Amino acid sequence: MELSTLWFLLIAVLWTGYLALEGFDFGVGLLTRRFARDDTERRVLINTIGPVWDGNEVWVITAVGATFAAFPEWYSTAWSAYYLPLLLILLALIGRGLAFEYRAKGDTDSWRRRWDLVIFAGSAVPAFVWGVILAGFVQGLPLDAGHDFVGGWADLVTPYTLLGGVVTLALALLHGAHYVALKTVGDIRVRARRLAGRLAVPVVVVLAWFLGWTLLRDDTPSWPAAAGALVAVTAVAAGATATGRGREGWAFVATFAAVAGTAVALFAALFPEVLPSTLDAADGLTTANASSSDYTLTVMTWVAVPFVPVVLIYQSWVYWMFRKRIGVQHIS
Amino acid sequence: MDVLDLARWQFGITTVVHFFFVPFTISMAFLVAIMQSVWMRTKSERWLRLTKFFGKLLLINLAVGVVTGLVQEFQFGMNWSDFSRFVGDVFGAPLAMEALLAFYLESVFVGVWIFGWGRIPPKIHLATIWVTAFGTLLSAYFILAANSFMQNPVGYEIDEEAGRAELTDIWAVLTNKVLLITFPHTIFAAFMVGGGVVAAVAMWHLVRGARNPEDASPGRPSDAGAFRTALRIGAVAVLVGGIGVVITGDTQGKVMTEVQPMKMAAAEALYETEQPAPFSLFTVGTLDGSEALYSIEIPQLLSFLGTGSFEGQVEGINDLQAQYEQTYGPADYSPNVPVTYWTFRMMITMGGLAGLIALWQLWATRRGRVPTSPWALRITAVLPLLPLAGNAFGWIFTEMGRQPWLVFGLMRTESGISPSTSGTTVFVSLAAFTVLYAGLTWLWVHLLLKYARPGLPDVTPIGGDASKDDEDDDADADKPLSFAY
Asked: Which portions of the sequence form the region Disordered (chain B) (predicted)?
């Protein structure tokens, strides 16, 4: 296998990890608004992700860093093209990170209420905008011969990319509900299950719509893309069944698989391109013309192959360490 | 202002503010890890209280440090896409290594540290803060490797066809001579920040306690003792950091003279090559090469700083300009001299003052004494600001001193910006970041003061009771847990 292909795969894995891990903590952030009935319940929710959200967020930092190192052209073109959407994401993630740490450090209700708003918006904005950006990679952008973006808002925000945003947002919400059902006890757990059950059908609909559209963009859809799409849609349905039977662990695994299947479908539909040009196909970016030199890719492979598993091991250990359910009785 | 100026201002503002938090995190993580280790060793409650107290300040700071770091990784692509295209093959590697090898460590293990109090075995809990601290060091190393490549590009060759620099030797990038000396310089400077915070907070409590004995909470006799210990730790960290900064800075000056002589010349506003060259403490007048109106000079000092010999020759801006024109073609190759001249001096002054205050603190509290004059409080309040300012001036000096180069000798700053980005877009983002960063800096100060003011927390001894595995122990399953959020 070409090293650039390997790195495309690795970046797809890092994005998958990000969407699946921070996906549920975005979902929990979304649930703090209407779902949580009072401050105690909000604190239960926030504390279910307390020890892990920061580690989850590193997945995107690594995905972006790996893109910079392995595909500098992809990083440069996409990040300058998606300037304002990325600005929104940065503002949201900055606020959200501070909110988790600072909301309990003030004395007044209005202090907490403001941070709660930040947690909600800081979860909703990136969960949506990342979907717009990733769908945008599949859709392509108007790029000139120098690989520079020459379009405007209308090229970034299209019906297809907006639907992509709705899908990542909806998956995050469902994934988050499954996570809350798995990690809490008492009334909040029951309500999370009920919410997850109600969300399943709408999520299947938007997901199938989006993935069907993604597959139909190609004249001959690749089989990994089709398989990913199939897994994703099936997994959401399976998750609903598991929730109905009270198998919360399996339900969470199911939405994890749904997120992963969606990511596989997107990246498989993209490959071997990384950012096609909608003007002249020859000006688009591919794994071949966007990648770093073989030497750089070799060096980075030597770093990634041993250390990605190490990261997985210690991050899994943290999840195991904090595996206990929590409830309102644990909040003093 | 055009796109270039806006993008530079954005990078400057976001980076300088980010670097208020970074040295604080690096040094405070180590200082807290040391406190917790002593507590584990001695089981003395005073150390646990110090650990929790300064640990809280660490976390308030860490949160802003982490979130502002995100911006750094994104803005290379957003504002500087031609730079990223040109050097990504080399420059991206240390950034990706930082994320994979260091940032995961910090972010994952600090979460365990925050939530692990009383819930995981104490020895493992202690290990998590050490891993976090170690991760911050590793982070600094990789980020400085990327920066050092911009100061002194090594381990690459230019691929003319692709129009970019390509990595040929990662080891050369990771052992860049600029990196090997900048790393310890930065870390020592970081310890002046954390040490300054610890020493200042401890001294403030000591002096306040001595000035208003009736305010001291009854039944807490050990506060003064604990703060006295913390003061020692903090002041010693400032002094050790300060000595380290001087020693490494000396070597750094020589490396700079060798690889970036223009920066050294600009640091002194030395227009004509001199042998030996003096170092001016202070200059009134213009720094544009015309006569200084008034200047206090130490003969031969610049020669020593730059070359290690009091008789050494230091090249001046005009000669270097002529040399560079021969090599790179006609253009202006000198940085903004007033900025480099004054930031270089401010960096040294701030560090020196911080060292003096730390010395004064140790002297003023010798053998159980506590100063009670209001000046003792005022001087102490200034201490944490000095190393922070020194760090900022140092970075402004080294980045402005590299100008007009973005990557020394390879790419000029104006060639690095994103061709597709409009001035309006960058203006919006600059405005948003400026407002947001002003707000979060205010919050940071507000919360640090709020949590530094009340003094040491009460702790219930928790050593030992978490060491047993409570997996099947449901007896206390419904008891409130000590949550951090």
From this structure: 462-485
